[in-house]
Amino acid sequence: AAVIIASGLGASKEDAQEQVSVGMGTLAGSTVMLLTIAWGGSLIVGRCDLHPSRGTAINKTLTPKTSITEAANETGVTTDTDTKTNAMVMMASCVTFLVVQIPAWMGMEANRTVHLITAAVALGGLALYCGYQILFPELQRRKIEAAQAKSARKRGAMFAAHLGNSMGGILVNGEVNAAALDKMFGQFDSDGNNEVDVQELKLALVAMSVTMQDTEVTDGDVEVWLKEFDKDGDGLISRAEFCAGMTHWVLEQAKNISVRSHASSRRSSIDRSVHERTIAGSGPAHAGLEPLLGSTPEREDIEADDDDSDAESEDETPMTKSQIVKKAMLFLAIGMAMVTLFADPMVGAVSSLSKAMGLPSPFFASFVLTPFASNASELVSSLYFASKKRRKNISLTYSQVYGAVTMNNTMCLGLFMVVMRAQGLEWTFGSETVTILAVTLAVGFLGATGTTFKSRLAVPVLALYPLSIALVCFLDFVVGWN
User: Fold this and answer.
1) How far apart are CA 20 and CA 95, in angstroms?
2) Which of 127, 219, 346, 355 is 20 to 30 A from 145 (CA-CA)?
3) Whole-model pTM over 0.85
């Protein structure tokens, strides 16, 4: 949208019309791609077994099925109720297109008053949506909870590795040392009753943070540990629950480090020898931390570039509010400068590509190609979060998709209407509008009416992508809306 603003306001009327056509193609392609490929792909990647009685997805559980039909009906994903609300908000944001499209069908394609009203409605909807995100920050809350849980898992595995150093290593022949976990549980269970209550948990976490020179323990940390370990919900952590949960944490962290180590071309023979000594339980006192934390000096520069790092260094002083504002404004200024610089070349490239391919309109190139560049981050992050196969991750994935489409329907459309109002352009995007509304309402209805989606839904949702292209072609070249 910013690209079209930067290039469209300073162009001739004819060029501006073509640039808005490119922008609408990108907008329609972005919305359709997110609601089909990202949504359906996340369903496939994040699918888990469905509980036989409750019908909800079982976190991180996917067993082999005997047939495609069985897999399609007995696996799926489950979201939280807040995700349903986000789907409803996305559907409501579609009204912005009706404000401009209905008058266009009545012969007012170039009515500047209609364009002004549409811009006001769209940007007003953007303001309401931003207010909603501030007042009801469910998406941000889930991100924070996910980060807290991730940090807790890493610190817990670190402490287990520390205790395992004196007992043959936390990993013995690829298996977690049960004796080390029993010793760790004994340090948490101060009264020796084989159960850890909230008070014991907090005291143990405080002692652990002192031992490991970690961050200060908060009530949020206690809640995360209790949520991760207390599977029966009785407010207590039994020995079995503790050992099972900690085993998962240790293996998860060891696997993450192992994957990163093999992917890095900078891994040296020193790293391999440290890893071997850790498994064998030999080496210096801190060797048990190596596969989990990568704390040797040789690995520090590798781990610093890791995308899975949980928090900033404790030695780094947190920025003040004014510093955050200044940094954000600086980045915005740099971004706008880049948009202004590359806007015309980008739009020109799409138009030239369209002509070189013999396409009847720049719309088709911008619909199919541009969204995969402009929305690559949403697509990749959606599939990444979904691959975790947990309810909170798939909820975050779908909330992100619904949020991105809502921004398309409000901010992007509003900025396009500003250009059209300023240049006196015609709204000739009826086919694009119908396609956006059809896909948004179809997928939005699914998200707003349920929380569990079986894997079989992925096929019709993914099929909406080629069908949407076919619908635009039919409306433009058969019905004659072009």
Assistant:
1) 20
2) 127
3) no
